[in-house]
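Record type: ASSEMBLY
Status: queued
Input:
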Amino acid sequence: MTTKYTKDHEWIRVEGDEAVVGVTPYAAEQLGDVVFVELPDVGKSVTPGDEMAVVESVKAASEVYAPISGEVVGVNDVLEGAPQTVNESADKDGWFVRLKIADKSELDALMDEAAYKAHIG
Amino acid sequence: MRYLPLTDADRSEMLATIGVKSVDELFSDVPKSAHLKEPVDLPAHATELQVERIMGKLAGKNVAASSVPFFVGAGAYKHHIPSTVDHLIQRSEFLTAYTPYQPEISQGTLQTLFEFQTQVAMMTGMDVANASMYDGSTACGEAVLMAARITRRKKAVLAGSLHPHYADTTKTLAKYLDINVVSTEASLTSIDALYDAIDDETACVVVQTPDVFGRLHDITSLSEKAHAHGALVIAVFTEPVSLGLVKSPGEMGADIAVGEGQSIGVGLNFGGPYVGLLACKNDRNFIRNMPGRLAGETVDADGRRGFVLTLSTREQHIRREKATSNICTNSGLCALAFTIHMTLLGEKGLRTLARINHETACDLADRLSAIDGVDLLTDAFFNEFALRLPKPAAGVVDALVDKGVLGGVPASRLYPGGGLDDVLIVAATETCSDDDLAAFEAALKEVL
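Status: finished
Output:
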């Protein structure tokens, strides 16, 4: 099970032909209390850098970008009623989107955990 | 030291950055014919006393609304405003305060906004209202954009009897968001054409009641048809006093209610500033997509009642170009005037005021439609109705001014070339006395 990271603080965990995407605990902490999450429609196709979701905290609103190309095959409905899950469990229960991976080689361009840790200093 | 915020070098650098040669080039969109070729022809100087005399003479050419029997409406209405309203809004805590950007320190302002929202929601029969928009027309335009966001559709259908200024504003706002706005014909008979214009692509249908000709519409079945197609219904009103008597937008199935609040507390002024009202039903997706500010009630750490501006992340100062609207302020002082006037009236007072308006308008309609050649075109109205005259209404209005009566708005002013030249739109409020009605009746008989 590989987990990769983007410079925009998304994580992506590969599970077979699919991948789960969320925001990192670091990003969640920086945002503060998350009050709203806007998720994409299932079936939407994305390419790297596309706006995929919106996360709003009491002090800011940020976009969540697609780390790789793919089709949205699932979204975390829990976040609609309980957006605070992003703060409580950013790297697990607070996931945003499940993607069907279009091209696994795109993962190579992303950071591994060590590189991401260096990135956030 | 002189205060010179901008040097020539600063200016050149900025112009170079955006790629234009001169400041004048920034105004190239303004037609040449509108440019001033020479300075305005004014004397080099005059004393204060001389200026007062000249201006007084010029102002004397106007016929002020309060100086003659007055029956002009069509979107702005002359009502009596209790002197308490003016007295209270001039308190410096209210008068000088701008929309709160450090909101929680302005508890008094937030409380009045919360009360304003509560009143607007109750009047319109909706669940949630925002802290106000600029005016009725921008509230209408914003409601269409809101509906497009909620439904993710790009077509809006406007009733032809929606106030044309509201339709224009809506089209202007929608233009650059690729929302296709279609208006049905401005028919004097019915709004049935609206039903046929609704399809599965329609984001919203916009209908005004009382409409620009004063007609009341029960939009319940229109709402049902729209909802069957997944479209939203935006109910518009220009006369909020009507809500004291008629079925509210909420009761008729509207999803969003918008209108002008000027009638209550604000006065005619010079066509502005006014206050736009916007309310919607209690649905997460609706509230998320609302434009403007929203005051909310909460408790502080000690459990005491307090107020906050809530859901600000929708707004432009945080969300920038992705905000739900370019408005991140509100018509604060006018909203306060509205709130104070409404508080003075209360529910019962609003109903009584509405009844007086309606009775006065009924009396006037009876008097005027009894005149030979004059037909009443509006069978169900509140305080405004349309008449068909035996000659062009614009000329009749001018002739009435010479008789000392401001006798309404010719429909041709709102629908130039629309074949409504002989239609006159007449409003009567509680400010019209029996003598005023008699004067209008007598003057109209003379000029026809």
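Annotation: The helical segments of chain A are 25-31, 78-81, 85-88, 113-120.
Annotation: The two ends of chain A are 25 Å apart (CA to CA).
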